[in-house]
Write a structure and sequence with these properties.
Elements: H1 14-22, H2 25-42, E1 50-54, H3 60-67, E2 71-76, H4 79-89, E3 95-99, E4 111-117, H5 126-135, E5 137-148, H6 150-159, H7 163-167, H8 186-193, E6 198-206, H9 218-221, H10 223-233, E7 245-252
Parallel strand pairs: 1-2, 1-4, 2-3, 4-5
Antiparallel strand pairs: 5-7, 6-7
Helix pairs in contact: 2-10
């Protein structure tokens, strides 16, 4: 789809972004599910990994990696969200913060693990960025990619009765700055990985049920039970395709 938008930059409303995303069960559950699915890739006994958190924003995932003893490069195009990250993470000899877009990251360094979560849906050219991310992974290393799910967005809007919005291909004249404008289709992203030197090792839906609850109060009152069921069913058919976000972890070929 042709568009002339610029990649989304969260300067001027970084605090609002942080509060809206991580001050809700939506953000909390998304983060905890991602950490769960990454467990086997980041909990390596006695081994410190070189990790890139590309487009990592305020450093929520970076903090997890630092707490595990890994060396982390955190990059983002927004100076304001990186300021929040610096305040949150304080000084750490294992942390390198870079105010830079993903395509401009140096190709001279490769990483054991590259993380790019909730970024593709804000980009003009997500497939070009995918290729760059793969280039930044060491042979045998892993890429963890999650993105806003176009198919789940359509499904949800149908459930909510937003029929006119769906008929307009979910394009709105009134752009909501905190709503992803370029959600991706999981099967399209998976097909792109087939053209790259990687093997898919895991795929999962993130928030397969949370956002569709008829009783939203249960998102809070029965959070732990809901999280358990998200983990149980998030990697199985057909539920993984309904996740508001989709996670793909790949290993780069040697």
């Amino acid at each position: 789809m042709e568009n002339n938008r610029q990649d989304q930059n969260f300067d001027k409303f970084a605090d609002k972004f942080e509060k809206n995303i991580y001050g809700s069960t939506k953000g909390q559950l998304r983060h905890e599910l991602l950490v769960h699915h990454l467990h086997d890739y980041i909990s390596v006994d006695g081994m410190s990994l070189d990790v890139l958190d590309a487009g990592g924003g305020t450093g929520v995932m970076t903090k997890v990696m630092l707490d595990l003893g890994h060396r982390v490069t955190l990059s983002d195009i927004s100076s304001e969200v990186l300021s929040l990250a610096k305040h949150k993470l304080a000084k750490n000899i294992n942390l390198d913060i870079q105010h830079i877009d993903i395509l401009s990251l140096s190709a001279e360094k490769q990483y054991d693990l590259v993380i790019c979560h909730a970024v593709l849906e804000w980009l003009q050219n997500p497939l070009q960025v995918m290729r760059k991310l793969v280039d930044l992974v060491k042979p045998g290393g892993h890429l963890s990619l999650s993105f806003f799910n176009h198919d789940a967005q359509l499904f949800g809007n149908m459930l909510y009765g937003n029929f006119d919005y769906v008929e307009q291909s979910m394009m709105s004249k009134n752009i909501v700055r905190l709503s992803p404008q370029n959600p991706q289709k999981p099967r399209v992203i998976l097909s792109q990985f087939e053209t790259l030197p990687v093997q898919v090792t895991k795929q999962a839906g993130i928030r397969c049920f949370h956002d569709y609850l008829k009783q939203p109060e249960k998102q809070t009152s029965e959070y732990e039970q809901l999280k358990k069921l998200e983990i149980q069913y998030g990697t199985t058919e057909p539920y993984l395709w309904l996740g508001k976000y989709f996670l793909i972890i790949t290993q780069k070929n040697y």
